[in-house]
Amino acid sequence: MQVVMGIDPGVANLGFGIVRIEGNHMVALDGGVVETAAEVPIERRLERIHAALAELIAWHEPRALAIESVYFGKNVHSATAVGQASGVAMLAAAQAGVGCFAYTPQAIKMAVCGSGGAGKRQVQRMVGTLLGLPEPPTPDHAADALAVAICHGGGAGHRQAVVAAGVSTSGAAAERVAG
């Protein structure tokens, strides 16, 4: 049994999802969004995110923090803010001794839906199905965070076996980002 915290990074809305994995069975333990107001200075917004995640980590004691990789699109300002939120999430995990893993949006969609090009609604529906929820999780940031946790949890046994065997994982979907 392991607990994984998934993160959909953002400064205004950072999604989190906590999933317990027991063999092939996954259960959602918690999920939601850490929201910060645009009029608050960025350092205070990041402080709020850090404090909330540190509290969630202390409460749920995850073995791993899985985070969606920062996508550097056309909006550099937005990408910078997402990168800052990602860094704060990894800091909270590192302070608690929790390893961090990053996944591309395509790898997450592939793990959850079987297609790297799946849409948001499809991801939400599949997350609900995989976790046995009565309806798709909302808001979408929380659903995305649960999808990241599912992505990590689905491949965790394979990764642990590879690490134990000392085999190279070049080309693997996960990127170890802390440690």
Outline the fold blueprint.
Layout: E1 2-8, E2 13-22, E3 25-35, H1 42-60, E4 64-68, H2 76-95, E5 99-103, H3 105-113, H4 120-130, H5 140-165, E6 175-176
Parallel strand pairs: 1-4, 4-5
Antiparallel strand pairs: 1-2, 2-3, 5-6
Overall pLDDT score: 87
Helix tally equals 5
Principal-axis shape equals globular
Fraction of residues in helix: 40-55%
Cα gyration radius (Å):
15 Å
* Strand proportion: 15-25%
Distance between the termini: 22 Å
DSSP, total strands: 6
| Strand arrangement across the biggest beta sheet | 3-2-1-4-5-6
Order of helices and strands: EEEHEHEHHHE
Q: What is the SS-derived class?
A: alpha/beta
The major sheet is characterized as:
6 strands, mixed
Low-confidence stretches: 156-165, 167-172
What does this structure look like?
The chain has 179 residues and is an alpha/beta fold. It is built from five helices and six strands, in the order βββαβαβαααβ. It has helices at 42-60, 76-95, 105-113, 120-130, 140-165; strands at residues 2-8, 13-22, 25-35, 64-68, 99-103, 175-176. The protein has a six-stranded mixed sheet. Strand 1 (2-8) and strand 2 (13-22) form a beta hairpin.
Could you give a quick summary of the protein structure above?
47% of the residues lie in helices and 22% in strands. It is built from 5 helices and 6 strands; from the N terminus they run βββαβαβαααβ.
